[in-house]
Design goal:
By secondary structure, the protein is of the alpha+beta class. The chain contains four helices and ten strands, in the order H-H-E-H-E-E-E-E-E-H-E-E-E-E. It has two domains: 73 residues; 126 residues, CAP (Pathogenesis-related Protein p14a). A hairpin with a 5-residue loop joins strand 2 and strand 3. Keywords: Membrane, Transmembrane, Transmembrane helix.
């Protein structure tokens, strides 16, 4: 091998070594490791944040379900009282209650409208029942029309058979066959019955004399 070829071989080997050392430096440099580490940390933080959001949503659902169950239990226990003919109420509402008492107990109605009576009555619509209030701000009547809804009186629900109602409340003061009335000196609790099935299809508490 002549001297010229040997020089070319040495030069080739030298260049190869330089390239290898440069590559080794890049892969072992701190900046490359830091970039990989930063990427891993960023991915970890994103995953943790997403997991946190999912956990928060799930906790909110659980809290909402718990609150609903508690409210339902409270309503069930409140609306379960023996019938008192001397202190009649419906849905826990008395005829001498104010509109403030009503909204404090039941919240804002889903809708309302004015009945064009001689003395206009504002009717508040709730889920399954309605309440009429006078211009002076007192309850004029309460009416329940939803089947199965607690009325606030033991043994009395819309859809209940009249025999069950009579056992719980006693015999009515008035009985026309399809309308029963439980009366006081100033008010009446009226039960509208289905003449075919003898089941209650509406209950209304209202004044019979001026307040």
């Amino acid at each position: 091998m002549n001297q010229h070829n040997k020089s070319h071989i040495r030069l080739f080997l030298l260049i190869s070594m330089i390239i290898m050392m440069s590559s080794l430096y890049v892969w072992t440099s701190p900046s490359h490791h830091n970039q990989s580490s930063d990427n891993s940390v960023a991915q970890s933080l994103v995953g943790t944040k997403e997991a946190g959001h999912a956990s928060s949503k799930e906790n909110a659902k659980i809290a909402s379900s718990t609150d609903s169950a508690s409210a339902s239990s409270l309503d069930q226990s409140m609306l379960s009282q023996p019938f008192d003919p001397h202190d009649m109420s419906l849905m826990g509402i008395h005829l001498d209650d104010s509109t403030e008492d009503l909204t404090s107990s039941w919240g804002e109605p889903s809708s309302s409208y004015i009945m064009p009576e001689e003395e206009p009555v504002k009717v508040y619509e709730y889920d399954g029942f309605s309440v009429g209030c006078t211009a002076s701000g007192h309850v004029a009547f309460v009416e329940v029309h939803q089947s199965g809804l607690h009325t606030g009186i033991d043994g009395l629900r819309v859809g209940e058979h009249s025999d069950t109602v009579k056992k719980a409340m006693g015999s009515p003061d008035q009985d026309s066959g399809y309308v029963w009335g439980y009366s006081t000196s100033h008010s009446m609790l009226r039960l509208d019955l289905d003449p075919t099935t003898s089941k209650v299809h509406a209950v209304k508490l209202f004044r019979t004399t001026a307040a």
